Amino acid sequence: MMEFAQWLENTGFSTWVRESPRIWAFPVILLIHTIGMALCVGVSAGINFRILGFAPSLKLSPMGRMFPILWLGFWMNAITGTILVMQDATNKLFNIDFYLKMVFIALALVVLRMIRNRVFLDPQVDKVPLSANAKTLAVLSLVFWVGAITCGRLLAYVGPIVGSVG
Amino acid sequence: MESLNLAHFHLLLNHLPTISFVVALCLYFAGLVNGSESLRKVGLVLFFLIAVVALPTYFSGSAAERALCPELKCPPGVSPQIMRKHEDLALFSFVLMEITGFFSWLALWQLRKTTKIAGWNWAVVALFSIASFGVVALAAAEGSGIRHPEIRDAAEMALPAIEDAESTGIARSIGAVMAGNTGIGWLWPASETIHFIGLCMLFIVVLIVDLRLLGMAKGLPFKALYQLLPVGMLGFTLNLTTGLLFFLAAPGQYVNNIEFHRKIVLIILAGFNVLYFMLVDETWAIGPDDNAPLRTKIAAASAIFLWIGILYYGHMLPFLGNAF
After folding, report:
1. Is B257 in contact with B321 (CB distance < 8 Å)?
2. Chain A interface includes B233 (CB < 8 A)
3. Which of A74, A149, B33, B66 is found 20 to 30 A from B279 (Cα to Cα)?
4. Where are chain A's structural domains?
5. Mean local confidence (pLDDT), A148-157
């Protein structure tokens, strides 16, 4: 595992991302990661707030058109996130905080799918009041996204528990 | 001639909140007394604008101090103690002005729905605006004493200089706690996390409202979207609060950081953008499946551009500027 992490971290690309003084190496990759977060969590949280009863006159079915923006943000972050882990693999892959973040994101995605299937693909959407189940899903979605953001942000401060940079 | 620096900027801006507050207060209270909604509305718009202009006024103060006392050494006649008092009063008045601005915006938002300010809100705006004016006047009086010994009273002049005047005052104490100097190390990371959550809340509005106006998910009428706006304003409030804490903890990272100046300029422009949506009626008339007028589309596109720009400059603080 450690050898693999070291190999990942020492590939030419990882080294370039980490050490290049160019603004479009590390800084811009991290910037895209932040914008991707804003797109993904922004749209998702907007939908969740609506399900929870904010802005009740806002119809849900047209809001479904915003899903592509959410996925755009998600894939921006999947790609930049992979790069960010690669360039610091010996730390990130041994950091419990990183795995916690991955768990939160996985749970958020599962809940997002459930919201899509049970709320947006329901032919009765906007015609009948939302079920308590839908509201539970919205709360869970918000909790998981906040968890993912918290863990992600704290990655800058929390060190690995095993193995050190040396 | 010396080029214009941030200290000039502070001198230029620092009269604005005090003077325009007098005008705004008069208009608002005249509106309350004679029941004129348009007068009250002008007062609310002015309170909001003052809250926007207060940003560069407050943040340039720290730069003015550095220009006046380089390397923490003040020239004779300049009192660090008075400067600390001025800074504390400026901080209080800044916070009060931002609260006044927030509730003024909320009142403008409520006017859109009911054409009447909700029962409680006019009183909140009245209360906070009077408090802001009182404290900003004190801050201004204290501030003018920094460079004008002739207006200080004899008792104050007779006070012996305190050696560590630099580290006294409430603003400095908050900054020290925030920076972890008292042993609480988690405040900064926790605030960073809240800053990111606030950012996402802000982007709920930036994305859903502005993308709708640009033509995505046209089934949504603006009349329904407006209900989301306070979520964005709340996100901004979280970020202004945590941002202010970062500034208090490490002013040196920000005062002469060009990325920070650009960020503040874009936030001011975003403030005007918010006001545009509050004041222009044609946006509010956009129904389901309506195409937004070109002007509204330009305003919506600028909003997305401005907020991504604010995110960009905030993000680049440590990379292009000298922060952290």
Report:
1. yes
2. no
3. B33
4. 2-154
5. 93
Q: Average pLDDT of chain B?
A: 88
Q: Is the dihedral of CA B215, B221, B226, B227 positive or negative?
A: negative
Reported confidence tier of residue B52, pLDDT bands at 50, 70, 90: very high
The residue-averaged pLDDT of B69-74 equals 77
Chain A: give the shortest CA distance to residue B319, in Å: 7
Distance CA A98, CA A92 (A): 6
pLDDT over threshold 80, residue B179: yes
Q: Are B178 and B187 in contact (CB under 8 A)?
A: yes
Residues of B in contact with A146 (CB under 8 A): 197
Query: Residues near B277 by Cβ (< 8 Å), separated by ≥ 6?
Result: B283, B299
Q: Which residues in A lie closer than 8 A to residue B199 (C-beta atoms)?
A: 34, 37-38
Q: Tokens 């930036």 correspond to what residue? A: B206
Alpha carbons B116 and B114: distance in angstroms, whole number: 5
Contact status of A125 with chain B (Cβ, < 8 Å):
no
Please report, as a single letter, which amino acid is at residue A22: R
Query: Pick from A26, A35, A63: which is nearest to B308 by CB?
Result: A35
What pLDDT is attached to residue B1? Answer: 42
The pair of three-digit structure tokens given for residue A43, joined into one six-digit string: 């749209």
ipTM associated with this complex: 0.89
A54 in Cβ contact with B208 (< 8 Å): no
Mean confidence (pLDDT) of chain A: 91
pLDDT at B78: 78
